[in-house]
Amino acid sequence: MQIETLVVGMLEANCYILIKENTCLVVDPGSEYEKIKKYLDKYHPLGVLITHSHGDHVGALSQLLDDYPVSVYRKSTVQEKKYQVGPFEFQCLFTPGHTEDSISFYMEKEQIMFTGDFVFRGTIGRSDLPSGDMEQMEESIQKLKQYPKDITLYSGHGDETTLSQELLTNPYF
Question: Strand pairing partners for 124?
Answer without folding.
Answer: 119
